[in-house]
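Entry type: protein chain
Record version: 2
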Amino acid sequence: MKLYDGFISQINGLINGRRALTAEYSPSSLENAGKNNVLFLKDTAFELGGSGEKCVSTLAVTSSFKYSNRIRLLGGDIKDIKSDCPFAKIVLLEIEEIDEETAFEKIRRLEQIRYNFCPRGFMSRASAISMREQIRVGKKTVKDKISLVDYAKFMLGEYLKDSIVKSAEIILVTDRSFDYDGLISVSEKIKDTTSALNHILDNVLFDCKSCNLKEICDEVEGMKELHMKTVNQKR
């Protein structure tokens, strides 16, 4: 699976060279609160991505790059944050080679992980359409000196449980100077590529000129090849 490799390179361009706290993965001691976890405002210290701050969450898969199961944090940790601030969460996954017929289903399964698990003391409010994922951080979480690295280790462990995931990296950003708009732009292309993948496999249009996803197929190396392969199979 190499359809997202160009976008991963663009993300690396936004991240690399910036000062970051780096931690290797180890099993998290945080308790899973489940997908129905609720954290009320009265119990909330602050919200990452709240109060209209910049906020973006994205996930990209590849079979070309190998990761070291690490976490990178750009910006302040929980102990440094006093109020709502901008936030980005980037999940990069090395997966085993998957066939085109099941690619969309498997990628969507990986995207759904964030909706099913959340460590206690945090509450995630995610929207796939807007690509936002706001994270409420509880007052008790701050008091207990839990860090964003702890949070990321918990989430990384959930991704590694999936049978097709070989390695992973999670990058969290709270730095106000970060190029959130640039990441939003790349994330939109990732989302459109996944939509185009589903479109190609389920509802092939033989005339590329009439397809509203032509721009994505033109930009993403391998997408048009997959399109023509699918067309030939269905003719």
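Comment: The two ends are 25 Å apart (CA to CA).
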